């Protein structure tokens, strides 16, 4: 499954020795065509890692032959040498695949910021990965891009005779403008780059962009969609876009479910907003409220903290018309005390917060996590 | 000291029984004149507690005779009944002080959101507080407004023959647009309301507004400045404003030093910004980065997280010109690796982060705290 669920792709995941642990740390995904169309979405952080700067250029051409991904180092804030290393990585992939250009090789990296990659291990690793390429290699590739992920993440959707598959990594630093994550989606549908781009942008806008585990935006976020055309089928754009969205949604949900140190997945739905932007702004404000995140961790249906968070936004609402439900119990009505908070059962991992702005008909869903001592522990260890 | 350091004021702090613990929970500060000028600054949260809505109206008159403050309940999100309770509280103060109008009585509350105050305890408590009023009552008043504060907070400044004194409470939910806190400042300087207002707004803009313990903005923030004129002295406005700023700065620093669960006070100075707004935006983004806050807790000089946070802002800078120092060691130079991170000594409570945007000459300082398991614990307990 994963990136090799669709026809026309091979993949590999190997241990190149980038990680001191000896765990798999290098993945390669190759598009064997006949089409090599691609689209990409990258972090909106203005401090971008070298592989992001590189891959943004590659994607402008609309064609990608291969994607090489490493864990064990983000190659971010590494200056000109870091960019040269990314370039050398792409050149090496082009060389081992023969007959391809480095300008069609996308690169993605994840790990600690501010350290150079061990190129003496990475470059030989590319040869090793190329030798291991397999049309069943999707799972191994998904495993090789893990950092603090406890599980690897894959998803598949599609239609009659065509498939969209994907893999993702990411377990912290999940935030808007893309979670920290590397995602590669592949399809054997015969879809040109502009349509891939449209489908991918719309899909990420309402999936990865609405995952906000801890409000921290990465320097390395990358989502790529590669089309081989190997099925010979060109689906209706709507059906194709929906399949891409479904895979993104599935992977985004898996990212939240595996967020560092989290004990709760919080589904925040903002309803009856004047605009979708209002709904997203309010949802994000709730998602990022540390006091609320602590309360959810403590299974405390503390709706006052939801109202506090809503009150910091510019969205259209009247304070005395706000309603809030936690796990479907309307604990806040008309800005004041509603149903008995003791009716709220918060024992399960998923917690649903519904915020009714009573100002229109638009809505949005944002996914977040609780804030736990384990999160603090995982992220306060030296150079985690 | 505290609010009775200046001449012309009396204060009291008593236990009215609002807190189940039996700890002091009601404070009264009275201005005996001859002048009763006042200024106030309130939360910019759009969900405002009843006492904030009331006191905003009172302050429009520019005159305040008394301030009554309770801990043990925020009287926020309590609907029309909550507002009636605040009104009744002010009326009771006016009644016991005799000859005064409720329209000159400011009210402030702090505690849990979404519960009505026990008026059967609060109203008799006002009689008790009035009977206990003393020109040495400042400390007791400061103690009575504590919630999760571990210490009470007071400060004093002034000039030749005149004084500015103050008290503050606040230990969490500290954020811009005012930290959650109640602050009462008093002065015996003879200063009319418009000049009080100018001094107070300028002082809060660069002190309380730049404290960002946990990014959460309260519904109840209130800062009041009362002038009795009892010294008969009208200082130069600049000297007066500086004294007000000094007291605010001292109290703001005490708030950070007593923040819930914190083990570090983080002084974030953004230098060489194109504008002061840029410096504040960047400082706040750093202050609110949970991953960085965890790293600081772990005494990890993780400058990559500083760059990640800077990169999410709209401020003017070039990524390859950013410099970052932690405790004066320039661990990041020109957007990449700088001095040896092992040179950074982070054993002490105060940690200094300097972010050089290399884009101008403006600067700003934001104070924040680290993120700890204790913070999570304190804020995840049921209805903390």
Automatic annotation (TrEMBL), chains A, B:
It holds the Pfam family ArgJ. GO terms for molecular function: L-glutamate N-acetyltransferase activity; L-glutamate N-acetyltransferase activity, acting on acetyl-L-ornithine as donor. The active site is at 180 (nucleophile). GO terms for biological process: L-arginine biosynthetic process; ornithine biosynthetic process. Substrate binds at residues 147, 169, 180, 260, 379, 384. The record marks 110-111 as: Involved in the stabilization of negative charge on the oxyanion by the formation of the oxyanion hole. The record marks 179-180 as: Cleavage. Catalyzes two activities which are involved in the cyclic version of arginine biosynthesis: the synthesis of N-acetylglutamate from glutamate and acetyl-CoA as the acetyl donor, and of ornithine by transacetylation between N(2)-acetylornithine and glutamate. Heterotetramer of two alpha and two beta chains. This is Arginine biosynthesis bifunctional protein ArgJ. It comes from Streptomyces nanshensis.
